[in-house]
Design a protein that fits this description.
The protein is of the alpha/beta class. The protein is built from 16 helices and 14 strands. The longest helix has 21 residues.
Amino acid sequence: MVKPFPDYASVTEYLYALKAGGVKFGIDRMRRLAAALGHPERGYPVIHVAGTNGKGSVSAMLDAILHAAGRHTGLYTSPHLVKLGERVQVDRRLLTEAEIVAYTNELRPVAARAAAAAADEHATFFEFMTAMAFLQFQRKQVDIAIVEVGLGGRLDATNVVQPEIAVITSIGLDHIAELGGTVALIAREKAGIIKPGRPVVIGRLPPEAESVIRAVAAGLDAPVHSVREAFGENPDRYPATNLAGDYQRWNAATATLVARLLDRSCRVAASRQTGPATSADPTKWGLTAEVIARGLQSVNWPGRWQRTLFGGRPLILDASHNPEGAEVLGQNLVQLRRETGRAPVIIAGALGEFRARALLEVVCRHAREVHLVTPHQARASSFEEMVALVPPDKRGLIHRGTLEAIFPDARTCTVGGPGDTVVVTGSIYLLGEVLERIEPGRGAGEGKLQDF
């Protein structure tokens, strides 16, 4: 008999050991684990969301829209910013440490039995977290779950679900070692979440990627609904949201199109109707135009052009971890300079040369000064690696920094001066480390339990 872990510290050490075992592609382990648990993922409707960028924002928007309709929602995303429990939320309440302990103790013997059958069959860290999400959503009796893909789609652990709607927000070059070095190859991997006969919503995709997605969908008799076809090309005609940036209006349009389709599907369990629209029609989700608009104005998604005041100056936190994200960052920095009349002070850090190169090209074009920091991650780019990517004529902008020196306490920022805007950008892990320092109420960070 497997002895239960007594506390959260021992559980996190166990989960860290699983993470250290690396990422294992393939969903057979997750299928067996889900079957051993009685398929909790089949106990509620699911919206499955993939994409190179925007999948987290679209997931958060859908959660906000469904919450505005009075629905009881589950939300599964990754990675976390500060605390592991951020990944699994019910009505935006994080999975608690006590729940993580209980679920780990429940899942551990199941995983051990599976591993006894084959040496490589032990569930991974991400598969453990995915199983926790499925069980939590079942036991909390959510009306619907929004499940974000971890990496890719076809071989992702989340791909055991049979979604009401599959969503592909964007396609760009990222994780090319795992997913392929071309847009077409990456699109094919993400198209793996499309299921026979189930609708798929696509955001703004490159033509090559869209043709791949449409071909896969046609082969599965899955109807495709395009944001471009529904809303056109002009972002000014797109739904508004409280998240800043034109790209967030693209995401808002994607979420709106999903909500419209969901409301037409009428696949909702009458026994759990709680929303305000149910008195008129108990089979619908109640996702009226007014509800969708209200939801899009109440989205809670930190680290995406998130504005605050800190240390006496404006502070913006914005994850930008691949070339497509860097392009969006550049658009936002142009707008910021128009608003403020001056170039910002930028704090940047990245994981790997591919991401760092795209980030620094944009950052050096728009910053008054750049403070390069190294996230506390094994894959993080060092100062020397990053500065080598900076053009010689821009190296005068560069400063070596650490978060401990830049944010020494929860009230102080040591870079920039009066009138400056400070922008923290790059790896989402860097943003999590900043939030841990400036918002200590979030608790001690759990960066060692990051996986992608």
